[in-house]
Each structure stands twice: as structure tokens, then as C-alpha cells.
């Protein structure tokens, strides 16, 4: 266990960040949670401008870099790297990335890959973990279609993983002092989006037909080729149906 105030979490109010912060606090740690807002349990700093970063990093030996905004991840990461290098004792960075960022041509994925490379060239000690999509992300794919008469399922597969399991793995890497890119992790099952949609429909008690959705383009081809999946024994344990059951309080989802 690290002393109070020596762990900093960027993106600590996001989906993964909340899970990491909760896991750290559960075992008695007191992480600094970076936010542009002021409030209880928050350390005010701005990753875009760098304002407050030096103070936020003072005395920190581990940074969980989980912040993302889908637009300028590289810019906010460069600011963090610059501030970390300038600190008295440069901290270890533990960064979350996504399986397939080097093969799936989404602009967001390209940004994540660029951050990976910036961290690798930063001169700081680091660990990088790539994970498959989280259960809540898959749920949102279907929730955003709630006004449609049909539930569409793109024609590729996914390997969703529990957020809490990813958070636990990040903390394990920090505890072990792991360096470099860790082995990718994914959920316990690979299912087609149709199968996942049917589980979602059952959990919500819906009756809408599930229809295939054939999409063109290099991104979908990369997904259909399985670049978003992790081969070999699975890391995660919680299945998507189990997540839905806990989410909606319905057994047999």
C-alpha cells in the first residue's frame, strides 16, 4: 500500500476512473483525483492548460492516466508528461489503452496509439494496458437505439469486460512495478453483436426484432477481422449477461 497522496488519478470521475479510485480507497489508499472542478476528494488541475499540475504531482510516485475526451488525448497527455518529467521525482505512469488501436482506423484509436508512443518515448517509467470494450459501452450501443422500432446489431463480434476487472489489473501493474506494455486483456466470452443484443433485449424485457446491420469501410473490416479481440485464455470473469443481471436486477439475462 502506498502512503496517502502519492497516487494520482486522471480521469478519476469517469467510468474506469471511478472504479480505480474506489478500489484504491477500499484498501485504505487516498488517491488524488484530478479534475478541473473543485470539490470534496478532488485535486484541481487542468490537463489542457497545465494549470495546477505541478502541485497535483508533488510527492506523487504513481499516476493512473485514465483521462480521455475523444478529441485531443495526445495534447492533454503531453502536458501531463511534461509536468511529470519536471517533478522532483518523476512518477510511474500506468496508462489504459484499447485492444486494436494499431489495427482499427478510428480517429479516437489513432489518438490512443499516439499517446502510447508519447509515453514510450517520454523517458518516464510506465506500464500500458490495452483492454477490450467495457460492458457499459456495449450496453450503450443498444440503449442509444431505444427510440427505434428495431434493435440493430453490426455484423461483427465483441469481447466485453467488466470495468472493475480492468481497474484491478491496472492496480496490479502499479503494485508490481511493471514496465512496458502488459499483455492485452479481454472478457471471458466472444459473442456476435447479435447475441449481445439478444441478451440486452431479454434483460430489458423488450420484444423488438434484432436486425443485422452491414456497414462498409475499413473500420468495420478491422472489427470483422477480430482486431478488437484478445486471443488465448480470457482474463475477465464476468459475462455480459451477468453484468446485465446485476445492472437491471433480472436473473437469467
UniProtKB/TrEMBL annotation:
Family annotation (InterPro entries): ComplexI_NDUFA9_subunit, NAD(P)-bd_dom_sf, NmrA-like
Organism: Microterricola viridarii
Alphabetized Pfam families for the sequence: NmrA
Occurrences of domain NmrA-like (ranges): 6-141
GO molecular function: protein-containing complex binding
Protein name (record): NmrA-like domain-containing protein
Matching PANTHER family: NADH DEHYDROGENASE [UBIQUINONE] 1 ALPHA SUBCOMPLEX SUBUNIT 9, MITOCHONDRIAL, NADH-UBIQUINONE OXIDOREDUCTASE 39 KDA SUBUNIT-RELATED
Gene3D superfamilies linked to this entry: NAD(P)-binding Rossmann-like Domain
Upper lineage: Bacteria, Bacillati, Actinomycetota, Actinomycetes, Micrococcales
Domain of life according to the entry: Bacteria
Amino acid at each position: 500500500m502506498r502512503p496517502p497522496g502519492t497516487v494520482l488519478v486522471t480521469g478519476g470521475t469517469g467510468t474506469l476512473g471511478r472504479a480505480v479510485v474506489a478500489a484504491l480507497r477500499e484498501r485504505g489508499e487516498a488517491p488524488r483525483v484530478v479534475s478541473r472542478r473543485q470539490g470534496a476528494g478532488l485535486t484541481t488541475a487542468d490537463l489542457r492548460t497545465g494549470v495546477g499540475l505541478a502541485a497535483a504531482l508533488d510527492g506523487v510516485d504513481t499516476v493512473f492516466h485514465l483521462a480521455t475526451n475523444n478529441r485531443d488525448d495526445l495534447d492533454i497527455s503531453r502536458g501531463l508528461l511534461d509536468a511529470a518529467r519536471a517533478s522532483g521525482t518523476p512518477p510511474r505512469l500506468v496508462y489504459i489503452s484499447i485492444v486494436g488501436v494499431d489495427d482499427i482506423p478510428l480517429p479516437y484509436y489513432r489518438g490512443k496509439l499516439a499517446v502510447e508512443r508519447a509515453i514510450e518515448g517520454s523517458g518516464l517509467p510506465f506500464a500500458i494496458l490495452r483492454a477490450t470494450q467495457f460492458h457499459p459501452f456495449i450496453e450503450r450501443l443498444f440503449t442509444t437505439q431505444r427510440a427505434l422500432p428495431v434493435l440493430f446489431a453490426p455484423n461483427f463480434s465483441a469481447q466485453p469486460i467488466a470495468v472493475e476487472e480492468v481497474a484491478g489489473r491496472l492496480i496490479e501493474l502499479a503494485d508490481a512495478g511493471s514496465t512496458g506494455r502488459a499483455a492485452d486483456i479481454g472478457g471471458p466470452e466472444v459473442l456476435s453483436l447479435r447475441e449481445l443484443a439478444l441478451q440486452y433485449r431479454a434483460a430489458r424485457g423488450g420484444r423488438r426484432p434484432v436486425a443485422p446491420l452491414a456497414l462498409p469501410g475499413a473500420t468495420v473490416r478491422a472489427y470483422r477481422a477480430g482486431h478488437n479481440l484478445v486471443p488465448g485464455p480470457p482474463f475477465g470473469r464476468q459475462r455480459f449477461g451477468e453484468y446485465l443481471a446485476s445492472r437491471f436486477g433480472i436473473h437469467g439475462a
